[in-house]
Amino acid sequence: MTGKNEAELSRLLRAAIAGDERAYADFLHRTAALVRGLARRKIVQGGIDPEDVVQETLLAIHVKRHTWRDEAPVLPWIYAIARFKLIDAFRRRGRRVEIEIDEIAETFAEPEAETVSDRDISRVLDSLPPAQRSVVSAVSVEGRSIGETATRFGISETAVRVSLHRGLAAIARRFGRE
Amino acid sequence: MRTDDLIKALDADARSKAMPLRSAWRMAAGAAAVIAAVVFLLTIGPRPDIAAAMHTVRFLSKFVFTIVLAASAFALIRSLSTPGASTGRAATWMIAAPLLVAVAVVLELFAVPSTDWGRRLVGTNMVICLTFIPLIGIGPLAVFLAVLRYGAPTRPVLAGAVAGLLAGGLSATFYAAHCFDDSPLFVATWYTIAIVILAALGALGGRLFVRW
User: Fold this and answer.
1) What does the alpha-carbon distance between residue A57 and residue A80 come to, in Å, rounded to a whole number?
2) Is the ipTM of this complex over 0.85?
3) Which residue ranges form the domains of chain A, and what is each CATH number?
4) Predicted TM-score of the model (pTM)
């Protein structure tokens, strides 16, 4: 299972970095499912929503994907980021946790589906400048393409891409610090 | 926002490109060396008898220590800034520079009479050493902390401290060309203190600025 995940995920991320958007979506969905499994196992007490950790980890993976060396295995890289964000989430709630990498590798296998509730990310999104917020919302919540978003707001596709990129970077930076 | 919606946004941003971290480290190393060289040449510069000094073992040994420190710290900081990269081997190499200094200190203690030890340890440049190693190293340290921020160190304080050791090794390599105190007793004492100052600043910088 782990060996198959490793080969598949690193292939997808390599393709994504080369510009294949479909491969990137696939990579992110699989990674989300894996991180969700980990977060649900590790978060046994209330106060932390595992899905917040999933989203924060995905954002970190996105804005830090240039730190993956494409000849290195991808699972340890994903684990390390997920672990860092999980510990960060615990620390913000005033709890200390020690999570061993080996322990993560063991419990990291089973993909899980999302449950819906109010998200930290929505609060962070609300704190963005209006232009970035409306572009990020259009592309994510409303599911519009870059082209549709450009038409809707009467701006160029490049401007949409720039706002989206800056908005996502700002969300990744502010997550959990608001 | 649902996670699936977030993924749509991340996917739409897939084309945004960033420089690979390892290229950023290579560029940073070059930029830091240039900054250190410029500050060094504009302030203290090399000692006038450097050509003659090149023929002495004690003078040359200083560069072995500082270059080994910088090289091992560079290897370690590159793995510390990459999530999931193994750091064990690079961390082990960090022993090399202190070990070489320790061996040199022992040899020096055998080579010179004990009445000379104090004079060689205190030297004449202690204040300049403690001033200029941090001063030459502070610019490079800022560059290295910026790259750490660009990377993803899961242990930011440790990574910051190693950035300080790297800046210290680089800075001391230049400073060593200025200093007349070539005894390993001097180097082991004052260079170490100066480099530890940079490591402490780096750890503080890691804690304050390297969040992601």
Assistant:
1) 10
2) yes
3) 2-107 (1.10.1740.10), 120-174 (1.10.10.10)
4) 0.91
